[in-house]
């Protein structure tokens, strides 16, 4: 399924498919011609593992070719035995496709995807996925249900942790990178696995941030914001796509002919297979879209779902529907062919040994080094008053406080399934190693768990802070507070953590806050208590070494926020690429209600789209992140003032590292289409580049802006680049930067 570029995809759609692709097609058709209807339907059935058991009934189903795929069989002996039965005892010897949620690592756990997104580093994302693929493949899996690429603009939604944030451009680049990492150049290589673009589509737009909830997304917004990462994944050759649980505009994604047949297959030429999410087919009954399981089966297959995960509409009802003439057999053929094609491309029939499965060993040194690099790059420095950080390695004694300072489980994040706490190095352990002497590290957690309200240990924490040069506070969310079905209405620090921060801050000792969380937390008051804040998400196996190196300046922070940080939950949704409105709050003086005396006149507050109590600006904008050095942007120049639609604008800027440390800056380019037939966002990220700049050095950074990327879907749902004036900004975040402009001409 992997092709090197989107042009290659286009090629394979026409008669000039490669020889390998033609061979796969031929073999899939030959198999299909030999299959009974029961066996074809079997390829469309995916069931969950029986926890390492191979009961007789399961063995018999596999033998009869009634199962095409399983998920979650982590016991190698069971996985091997099931494959053996499929290959040696079933009539046609078709191997099973073994799947698992390998989301941010298999045994070696990398930062949660939202953290990986903060690194703005596609090569790093690809490298981490490649390690995960290798580890998962060794354990007998050939398929992961990742990457997740749901654009999310509501941090109440727990699954925001699993995606790449709020922006379609950043998410598209990273989604394609993760697909490349999992699948490599050759899907049949034994250390690669098939990726799955999920959750198609609009899942992150759930009403109120409640998981599984309804999404209302006008088609233009869907196409301009929510679909591009999926298109990028398809262009990168993703082998499979998973439908989402939610309904969009009244139609569950799993039953959406529009999403699956018209867009995915018709417009994008997707050649892999589509799997439902877990029970998302049968859940169409609860949605009120299907009346019973036969109806579910008919609607799903007609819409274009090739494989059913977990529920039993296909296995129990499809055959009867076809025999009764209610569903054309050709749809079953099509779906089975899609599944077989991926199995063939994976080399399951030949190059790959489907029986191979071994328990994963401890992460090797290279995997750990990469996990550490990923964790370092994912951390965002939000604040650093008086240059408190980095701490001087030779001098400081530190108080290590907080429930997450020495917890090897919670820092692994939401989708840790196969990672081990024994592999994890906590901040406390890493700091002890780095500082080399027990006396320099005073550990007093203050709270045993993040959600605890028991304050009896506060006194010890306060005392530890008093006796040390600096207090390091490791606070945040447990892993279980983000992820599937784990939405929150209050985005504060759980338990008595805020009180702990306040108690330690009251000592007057310098305070560094390290926040470990699956989402942006709305805790400006807590940030206010600390001189420095490192936002670390859930960094994974190498949490400790990464944070220790950052705290003591062996590394400099380079992460930038992939999502806007609101001041309070009431500000949600807040995202940088919003519309201007007719009464924008920017560029005018607006007063907050607290600054106005009682009985003031209405007009004294101004009339703009914002909140009277907290204004308009978020706490931290998208793209924001400090480092231990500073950068100056100067001399922005464009290759042309007027460009045609087929042109590529070259944008150059001088970026100087004005500080005394080497650094890595993420240079961001935003545009605004000033006047269009449909109003456009105030800013849209269109390009970015990671640049290493030594202290004192100036680098000329060149960014390319293809004019074709400036379009949007108009009222007739045509992708158009409209002529006219554009603004352009280049800078270190979405709220600052040098400004210029250009014109697109016919
Ligand atoms: C449900 C989740 O929504 C999906 O992301 C996951 O891949 C499947 N379960 C399989 O575990």
Radius of gyration, rounded? Answer: 27 Å
How far apart the termini lie comes to: 37 Å
Question: What form results from the Cα inertia axes?
Answer: globular
- Strand composition percent: 15-25%
Q: Which blocks of ≥5 consecutive residues have pLDDT under 50?
A: 1-14
Per DSSP E runs of 2 or more residues, the count of β-strands stands at 26
Biggest sheet, spatial arrangement of strands: 11-16-15-14-12-13
How would you describe what is shown here?
The structure is a single chain. Helix 7 runs antiparallel to helix 16 (365-378). This protein is globular. By secondary structure, it is an alpha/beta fold. A six-stranded mixed beta sheet has the order 11-16-15-14-12-13, sandwiched between helices. It starts with 5 loop residues before the first helix and ends with a strand. The longest helix is centred in the first third of the chain and has 17 residues, at 122-138. Strand 23 (712-713) and strand 24 form a beta hairpin. The protein is built from 21 helices and 26 strands. Helix content is 29%, strand content 17%. Bound molecules: 1-deoxynojirimycin (NOJ). 1-deoxynojirimycin is lined by residues 101, 145, 198, 277-278, 484. 1-deoxynojirimycin (NOJ) is lined by residues 101, 145, 198, 277-278, 484.
What tags apply to this protein structure?
746 residues, disordered N terminus, 6-stranded mixed beta sheet, 21 helices, alpha/beta, 17% strand, 26 strands
How would you summarize this macromolecular structure in one to three sentences?
Helices cover 29% and strands 17% of the residues.
